[in-house]
Fold this sequence. Notes:
By secondary structure, this protein is mostly helical. It has one domain (24-163): Skp domain (Protein Binding, DinI Protein, Chain A), CATH 3.30.910.20. The chain has helices at residues 2-22, 33-39, 41-78, 84-138, 157-163, and strands spanning 28-30, 142-144. A two-stranded parallel ribbon has the order 1-2. Helix 3 runs antiparallel to helix 4 (84-138). The longest helix has 55 residues, at 84-138. The protein starts with a helix and ends with a helix. Residues 91-118 form a coiled coil. InterPro entries: Chaperone_Skp (IPR005632), Skp_dom_sf (IPR024930). Belongs to the Skp family.
Amino acid sequence: MKKASLVLAGLCAGLAFSSGVCAQTFKVGVVNVDRLLAESGQAKAARAKLESAFKTRDADLAKKAASIRSKNEQYEKDYPTLTDAQRATREKVLKQEVNQFESERAKFEQDYANEQNAMMQSLLSKADGLIKGIAQKEGYDLVVTEAVFVKAEFDLTQKLIDGLK
């Protein structure tokens, strides 16, 4: 019985000590990065700039694709009347054009992805600085980017969207 009393006294002392520690508040904020990238003014401007920068190249590729389709349709139409040598020549030319087009398209897609990543990294870097500023100013101990559920009072996303206009 005496042992049980000592254990109980120890637990009570531990709880009393820890309740003082637990009384301190721990403030957590959450940022929805997908929403930030979709709704912030800077993200919208970056997407518009990116689309504008690659619009001409995309249109040129679309014209080349249409030209290749047209040449292929003409080849299929003329196929019965062509000699073997003519067929081989036209097939070779079409294959070269298709290969060149595919190479240009792959280069375009790679350039687009690289530019998009650079713009998004720049935006996320600015957002990171803004997050740190808000966290320090408002006393947040931790800011996370993913959460299953967030009370509106802890969601910092709208503040960031407003800050990145």
